[in-house]
Known about the structure:
single chain, mainly alpha
Amino acid sequence: xxxxxxxxxxxxxxxxxxxxxxxxxxxxxxxxxxxxxxxxxxxxxxxxxxxxxxxxxxxxxxxxxxxxxxxxxxxxxxxxxxxxxxxxxxxxxxxxxxxxxxxxxxxxxxxxxxxxxxxxxxxxxxxxxxxxxxxxxxxxxxxxxxxxxxxxxxxxxxxxxxxxxxxxxxxxxxxxxxxxxxxxxxxxxxxxxxxxxxxxxxxxxxxxxxxxxxxxxxxxxxxxxxxxxxxxx
Length: 233
């Protein structure tokens, strides 16, 4: 069965997400575009791109006609986890390395990958409070555990249930860290988010982070189904 339509759908949805930050950096620092408007455009591209990509397995694509609900969920889960672990071990790990200097890096092109989110989205990433640093350290560790789980999964072609347990464990951490991230800001009254801006509040802070609060539940549902199927064989 050909999955070319699914691959194409994911290229078309994730491609703009990957290109958004370098293109935005060029636009701001070399073409003179307004940094806040550019950050808004990146946020829309990133948020809608991820949402679309994570749902591609459920699209009515010709190549997926024979897929069961579990097959579609598994495809979505693996994509979400891969994107998550890449994010943990790149954007978040990079922020941890330079966060103490982040305020002075505002006008440095290579730091715009973080400032595009900080501008209106969440000023905590400029200040680096200890609770945020703690969350990001946890996320990096979660990424390392998750990569281990994926390696085991692909090496055994999904037959080793230890891989499923590792991936489910990272989903639990995603739920915890995302909930903590949202609640500590929301309960404080969103002091670090520009609430006068729809994009800053609902897209940068809200939708851009929402997959890490919602998709882990799909991971857990899928994992339980896999474990039950294994024990019944």
